[in-house]
């Protein structure tokens, strides 16, 4: 017979994993921001994104091991699992973005469209509020403003994404360039969504624990 | 120690939220149906969709507050949360559709493709069966025909979507128009999926409660 | 009052459903592999994929009935439900792939791009490891290597998908052919993702049961 106890441990390891994962996402969005600089070394950005994606995989792996070997966890195992997995998802989209810009040779163009840089800026801000929020999971205090801000940023990203597509489909670029930039735009938009999923999971956990 | 009681309250507020949210979706699909009329005022349709999306956000917000302040709920908190969030997702796709048709200026064409109007019709029927089903959550009776019909409609929408793409890629339109209509088609298809997700959650709740 | 017992039945029916569903997916990827042969009868492949998708729907339907009529289940109802639904999702993407290749008349081309055939090969290997893993759910032993391999294959598929897009956007094909092949590529990529979702659910179940 299993009965659910609300006994919670003092072990901080789980919060450290989430914080490290989120700090790694800040590194990721900082690398993407380098793409905004004309003449950026896109191959180098893409490779360094690959490196920190590898770091994220390592953190996620350690987190899963910790879940599997812990008798008690600070909140439901499934939620810890989901949160770790969703933080990892964000990194996958950041890495994919850099890789596509590189593979498609998009930086041979004079500059990336302004709306694309706006999307990268939104991601950078989402990464920062997420990294600030993760340590607060320990006390479950002051998290509400985080998920509200993260969702607000997602809406801002959504608008930038729509206007980016309007520009891409305006006739300014040839069809193949449109298709390439559309792929990059889609990854950026998935990354803003992925940050929102993290925020939604934090909200769900907070609702359960309150 | 938490033990799960199957004590259920008489409070009808939750069912009212779901019903209002679904009725709002009917307003949304009615607005999209206006796009089928040649010479439709697309800007006005898009703006009115923006207004009712705002109403949906408000309903979802009230629902979440109600979850957080209720001691007992008619079924699992997480399922109430998910159902509210999924009803809201449908609205996001309806609003996005109207907005894209407007932003891309697609109505300068003689008429939207027939398969696109079929998709809008499928959405309208999904909205109506959903709005009829929501009040039945109170008794959990006669819901099965709803989720079967909603899934059947999603299949119908899927076929219309595939045939729409065949038409878009047939050479009838220039590449940029194809890309714009493809975006609109994708939103419509996501909306039919989103209605199916609502139906799947209702089925999951019914399975648990039975 | 409901209290969760860890009493587990000897009934093997559930594992049979999962095994049959996964074996059906092997049939599906074998059919897709026929597309690699120049001069393949694409209409016939598409129709046979439609038939086995119908078989999958039938298996899923029987599984859901079994869940609803069973007093005890080998693991959480929701997880059984999710696993059944995710196996069904894979089939939907396999069927869609065959149908799109047929509807778009893509086989009038000399051959499908090499990277597309690589993606189909990845799917075939994912189907085989999944079919081998399903009977092991009964003992929950030796499943870890399955989900690791299935995730590794998804990564391999991801790389093939990216390189496929690089080829599609290289200028080798006209814009409409690019758009058609992109749709097929997306379905294949969704299918590799869907196999990964199955593996993730198996992992989640194993973590809970351990």
Automatic annotation (TrEMBL), chains A, B, C:
**Please, which domain of life does this record's source organism belong to?**
Bacteria
- A Pfam short name: PhoU_div
Which family does this protein fall into?
Answer: Belongs to the UPF0111 family.
Task: State the name under which the record lists this protein.
Answer: DUF47 family protein
Q: From which lineage does this chain's organism come?
A: Bacteria, Bacillati, Actinomycetota, Actinomycetes, Micromonosporales
């Amino acid at each position: 017979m299993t009965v659910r106890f609300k006994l919670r441990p003092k072990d901080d390891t789980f919060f450290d994993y989430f914080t490290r994962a989120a700090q790694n996402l800040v590194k990721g969005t900082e690398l993407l921001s380098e793409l905004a600089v004309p003449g950026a070394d896109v191959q180098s950005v893409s490779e360094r994104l690959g490196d920190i994606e590898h770091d994220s995989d390592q953190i996620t792996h350690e987190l899963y091991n910790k879940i599997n070997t812990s008798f008690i966890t600070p909140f439901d195992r499934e939620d810890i699992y989901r949160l770790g997995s969703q933080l990892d998802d964000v990194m996958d989209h950041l890495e994919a973005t850099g890789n596509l810009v590189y593979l498609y040779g998009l930086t041979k163009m004079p500059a990336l469209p302004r709306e694309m840089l706006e999307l990268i800026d939104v991601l950078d801000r989402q990464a920062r509020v997420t990294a600030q929020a993760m340590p607060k999971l320990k006390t479950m205090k002051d998290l509400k403003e985080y998920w509200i801000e993260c969702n607000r940023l997602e809406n801002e990203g959504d608008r930038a994404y729509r206007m980016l597509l309007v520009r891409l489909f305006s006739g300014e670029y040839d069809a193949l360039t449109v298709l390439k930039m559309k792929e990059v735009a889609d990854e950026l938009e998935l990354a803003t969504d992925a940050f929102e999923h993290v925020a939604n999971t934090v909200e769900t956990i907070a609702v359960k624990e309150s």
